Amino acid sequence: MLSTKFNFTSIFLFMVYAIILMSCKENKEKVTRDISSDQSVNIQKPNIVLLFIDDWGWSDIGYRNDIFHTPNLNQFKKESLEFKRAYIPTPTCSPSRASLLTGKESVRLEMSRHIPEEEHFINDEYNIWPKDPVQRPSRNYLPLEEVTYAEKLKELGYYNMFIGKWHLGEGKHYPEFQGFDKTFGTTDNGHPKSYYYPFFNSGDPKAFQKDYKEGDYLTDVLTDGAVDFIENYDNKQPFMLSFWYYSVHGPSVGRKDLLKKYQDAGLKGKYAHHAAMVEAMDESVGRVRKAIKDKGIEDNTVIIVLSDQGGAYTNAPLSGGKKGGNTLGEGGARVPLLISYPGVTKSNSETDIPVQSIDIYPTLMELATGTKYKNDKIQGVSLLPILKGDKKAKRNTLII
To answer: Rounded distance, CA 75 to CA 303, Å?
Structure first.
């Protein structure tokens, strides 16, 4: 009897001990997940690649408009979630970038227009356009006190690489003062003089152009930089690559080897050049994705493809666009947005839920931490629930 009693007691104590151990383990894991800024977070943080394309219209893509040849983006759609009603809060160059970086509507940053040439500056901080009917000043730079997604991701252990167009201020307002560790191809310009070398007449304080020659094409040069970064990245920390294209912003200069086929197809003038530029951009997307796959990090890399505003040419069947006096119409404000989160997003899926580019910021925070992100200073809401299959975005305010 003593032996049986001892066995029952031993089993009971062992079970209690096991339950306590499991509880401690669960609590430890919960604490580890909640401490999102700790380098030892008990989740595998994904690498993140944001491909932010300039003046790329909602219909400038092969699977919506057969004028364009975009096999890489067509394939990416099959592997991602497409947001068919994605919008830019203020569809023009600098404000769209400020909103994306901060998760805030750009008007709250006092930046309602893109940063112009200095002849429009009224002082170091603000500019004003003579034709503006309300004479509203707009900022000449993104204030350094604004917290960007790069700064937050750095706190969470990420390395931040920036490539391409900035257009949010010069000198002390460059990307490296807003959380980015390294830049490539960044200048003071909102667009190049030409997509063929020499790309810029001035505004190249880092002498980006010095390593290139006649015949080099800007989109390819920047893509070389992105591929080189991915191939040679050897840090233990995850990375965020922000590749902000100058293309397909004007001047419309198609790559010569692509231009002829669009001209032969009947496209004329700048529109043929535009189609060639779109295809060169599509090739770039394909090269970046191949570099990720060849690196062996495809299964742990989130890829986001987004445009900064509607296209400068036709955005049919949507009304409006960058030019023609209806920038705030659907064709000006609605943009392509596709996101691939391996193991989370359902391949070849679509959603009609209205979202905005300000939603990228909190989405990045939740990707990096695995926990819900709360910040009452921004207007964006996380898209992660939609990426996981939810049918609506939990938004407290209207999209305007």
So the answer is: 13
The Cβ of residue 380 has, within 10 Å, a number of other Cβ atoms equal to 26
The string of pLDDT tens digits covering residues 28-44 is: 333 223 333 333 334 58
Query: How far, in Å, CA of 79 to CA of 66, rounded?
Result: 20
Cα→Cα distances 380→44, 99, 102, 139, 362, Å: 24, 9, 9, 21, 7
Q: Is the pLDDT of residue 21 over 70?
A: no
Omega before residue 198 within 30° of 0, cis: yes
User: Exposed, middle or buried: residue 138 (CB in 10 Å: 0-12, 13-18, 19+)?
Assistant: buried
Selection from 346, 319, 347 nearest residue 332 by Cα? 319
Burial (CB count <10 Å: 0-12, 13-18, 19+), residue 335 = buried
Is the pLDDT assigned to residue 15 strictly greater than 60?
no
Helices of type H across 35-105: 71-78, 93-102
- Assess contact for 246 and 218: CB atoms under 8 A: yes
DSSP 206: T
